[in-house]
Amino acid sequence: MEENPFILGVDLDGVVADFYKQLRIIAAEWLDKPLETLTTKVTFGLDEWGLDEYGGYEKLHRFAITERNLFRKMEPIKDAPSVLRKLSLKGVRIRIITHRLFLKYFHKTSIVQTVEWLDSYDIPYWDICFMKDKGAVGAHAYIDDAPQNIINLRAKGCYTIVFSNATNLHLDGPRANNWREAEALVMESMDEWRTGSLTLFGAEGFSAPNAP
Question: Does the residue 79 lie in any domain?
Fold first, then answer.
């Protein structure tokens, strides 16, 4: 790794790990409903699945992790591991940034499952940060799927790639619909960063370029 590397802040759930696919399977069991009755066209919070009358999203999330090993059993999103390996070899420093510790009392379980999952798919990373405020973690570019995370990052001037799913289709680009598109955007942003021409989002539009 070079002395002053380009740092990519990478979200996990919905970006690298197929969170919604696995949680939908677990939710069907937890709700005792046929899988096909749970739409895949969800918004953030999964109100479409009718969780509130069963205790809400947090209760489902707790069950999924503690009883069904959610963070260990998810499949990776197509091409995510291989593209991240390629990016790492091209000099991109992968910094995993995830808010998986938002519920109390089972942080160890969440962390262990996360690390085991990353290792099991040979996903490269130099750093891993468990925190809500992703903009507080230094990175030259970010990739995320959660609408509020993207809005918050861009409000701080952070170059942020939207990884497409049903929850974020209302947001402007740069946008990647898959990891091949993400790879091209990351390499483009790294080239612009190296030349000092990377444009960043600001609260009122674009701010000044960020030089390495």
Answer: yes
